[in-house]
């Protein structure tokens, strides 16, 4: 279970998230949607513990991850796989070494590293790239290599920031299939995307607008004319968020 309790995040004076609340069950496949700058990446970066909330609390399982010390954070990160443009591949290391990195950081034995990296590369269809450099791969292959690195330590939670951006239809569809396969195997998946139409196996959608979680159209129709809740969003704001 992932729980955000009134979470705010500021970058300097800029409020990227403003009192965000949601709950997502273990094993869910969630799309984070919303306009550019809405706060999608910020949610993933908080869950990856790259950022710390300015206020509020975040639970993954039973533990709060909002204020972990260095050792606790290192331990937590073993259960999380992250892919996004802000985490680069090491261009002067082989594809094998790039995928092996998270295992080497935690001191896994060389025998385990050999078998797990090979399995991860095979899973993303890149077995033949062991000795190649990332620069020798296409954009779509580099993305799949990032995914192999994100899942090599068998994380319970996979966070993917714009995993299909700038890919042609075939490469995007391979990436989506991979994420869906991990989810089918029990992994909780969260994807920030502008390309929702590419995803089929979605259990939850969180639509963000200006740092807040917006009510879904279903929430709006259920709320009808009731006071409070969704009424706090102006019509203009909702129109902008839903592109109406
Ligand atoms: N490191 C940073 N320093 C300052 N402001 C930032 C930083 N990262 C994000 N922001 C700002 O925080 C807000 C939310 O950004 P975020 O990246 O979470 O949005 P997003 O929905 O993922 O956008 P996009 O779809 O363009 O990736 C934006 O206004 C952005 O400009």
UniProtKB/TrEMBL annotation:
Keyword ATP-binding: yes
GO molecular function per UniProt: ATP binding
One protein family per Pfam: ABC_tran
Domain (ABC transporter) ranges: 2-242
Alphabetical UniProt keywords: ATP-binding, Cell inner membrane, Cell membrane, Membrane, Nucleotide-binding
Source superkingdom: Bacteria
Transmembrane helix keyword on record: no
Record protein name field: ATP-binding cassette domain-containing protein
Lineage: Bacteria, Pseudomonadati, Pseudomonadota, Betaproteobacteria, Burkholderiales
